[in-house]
Structures are given as C-alpha cells and as structure tokens.
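FORM 12-B: Structure-to-Sequence Request
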C-alpha cells in the first residue's frame, strides 16, 4: 500500500523529511513540513525554485523528499527530482496524475483522487490543495502514532502559547520543599494555626511518624471546632482523614477538574502516600493551564 510504504520511508530516515513544491503546492508544503516537525518527524521546506540555485545543498543522504505537484509537471521540480535520483534519496510524490513526470520518477506515489477544483472555472487550486493538506496531516498523524509521540514530547516542541500552557503538569505548578504546610498528628492546634498562617495555603497536611499523609486541617475544620478548648487539642483530633491527593505527572487541567468535582481549592500532591507538593487552583488559573 503506497501510504504505508511512505510511512516506512519517512519513519526510517536518519535525516529529515524535505518537503518541496511551488505555487499553492509550496504554500501547502510549508504547512505540512511545519506539522511534521511539530509532531516528532524532523522536516523542513525547500522551495523547488530555490533548490536549483544552491538550496539542493540542504538535502543530504539519509533524508527523504516529499514533492508536491497536483499536475506532476511543475518544471521547477526537475532539478530537485534529478538530485534525489542521482544520490539515491527516497522520493515520495503527492500528485493527482499517475502518469505524470513526477509520478514516474517517484519511489512512492500518493495519488490524490481526480476531483474537480471548486473554482467555478475549474482552474484555481482549491479542492486539490485541500486534499493535499489532508494527505499531509494524515502522514503526520500516522508517523506520530508510529513513533509513540506523547503529550510530553508535544510540549517540548510547543512551550509557548495556549497549547503549551494546556500541557502543564501538576509538578510544573505545585509548591514543594520548605513551602509545604505539614504538621504531625500530635502537633498542638496553636502550632497548626501558625503553620497555616505562615505558609498561606489555608490548610495543613497531617503526616504520621513515617511521613505519610493521613489527614488535612482546613479553615473549615477550624471553624467547625471553634470552642474554648480548641487550643488544648492536637492536629489528629480535628483533621479530616484520608484527604484527596493528586499525582505530580497528572495534567494540571485534569487536576483542576478534580478539584472542582471535590469542591476544594487546593490539593496535596503525593507519592507513595507521602506529600511532595501542594497545588492551588489559583496556580492553575494564573498559568492559563485550562
């Protein structure tokens, strides 16, 4: 199957996928190259016309060429196609003409269906560019899956903008170390209140002798236990047992959803039952992670 064979070529290259074309095919090719690169397949665009004037030097053994031409007869592709054949560089063509010069020269042909252009005159590249773009996206997604590309990998290539922020993990936003508001089960309530005040999270995690999180004291717990002997009690007397926790590798957006469901505004991050961080809803909103 040509599509699978193209995937084999692109996933097997040790270099880059070189996307090329002219005119509207060139514009679509730039987008395809950008999508490939952002989803784990090293790629860049080389204008077919510029290739004839030195840019062929950008293409090396170990690369593969993805050449785009609806007619398969774009004269500007001649030199880059010849270069690929000369140096035994795999050439995958996207075209709608099986008998075209480009198709005949290609290692693999990804043939577009013979659908008329949407332009009333049947001339302006419209339907053909849409089909080409869809083919490029299909290649990118299939290669993404074949490479086992993950959300973590995606974030590496998209550190900025809305997409990057939505991929923040809990560990990226949580507070840890000396910032953690932790007390022992036997800590006096006067000291618990001091910890809650100084750490400014409005809660205190309660740990046992082994450092495991066994409870939590919140502002609500304090209000529910306001009475004359409050400061004669210890954390274990008023804590809420088995508090909700989250994992450090969870997406911050998912942690936000859970906090909404649990009707809480902060949550401890635990590993093997031990608190390693605390995350506030405010931290997620401020980072724009939802």
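FORM 12-B RESPONSE
SEQUENCE OUT:
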């Amino acid at each position: 199957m040509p599509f699978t064979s193209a995937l084999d070529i692109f996933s097997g290259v040790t270099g880059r996928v070189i996307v090329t074309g002219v005119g509207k095919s060139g514009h679509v090719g730039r987008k395809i190259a950008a999508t490939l690169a952002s989803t784990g397949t090293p790629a860049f665009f080389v204008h077919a016309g510029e290739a004839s004037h030195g840019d062929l030097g950008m293409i090396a053994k170990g690369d593969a060429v993805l050449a785009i031409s609806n007619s398969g007869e774009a004269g500007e592709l001649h030199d880059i196609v010849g270069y690929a054949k000369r140096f035994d560089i795999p050439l995958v063509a996207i075209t709608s003409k099986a008998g075209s010069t480009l198709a005949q020269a290609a290692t693999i042909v990804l043939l577009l269906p013979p659908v008329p252009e949407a332009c009333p005159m049947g001339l302006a590249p419209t339907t053909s560019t849409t089909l080409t773009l869809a083919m490029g996206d299909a290649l990118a997604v299939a290669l993404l899956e074949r490479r086992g590309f993950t959300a973590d990998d995606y974030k590496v290539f998209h550190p900025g903008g809305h997409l990057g922020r939505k991929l923040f993990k809990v560990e990226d936003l949580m507070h840890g170390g000396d910032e953690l508001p932790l007390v022992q089960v036997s800590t006096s309530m006067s000291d618990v209140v001091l910890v809650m005040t100084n750490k400014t999270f409005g809660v205190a995690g309660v740990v046992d002798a082994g450092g495991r999180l066994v409870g939590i004291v919140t502002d609500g717990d304090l209000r529910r236990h306001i009475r004359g002997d409050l400061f004669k009690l210890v954390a274990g007397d008023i804590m809420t047992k088995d508090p909700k926790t989250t994992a450090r590798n969870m997406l911050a957006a998912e942690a936000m959803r859970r906090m909404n469901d649990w009707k809480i505004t902060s949550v401890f991050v635990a590993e093997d039952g031990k608190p390693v961080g605390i995350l506030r809803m405010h931290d997620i909103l401020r980072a724009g992670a939802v």
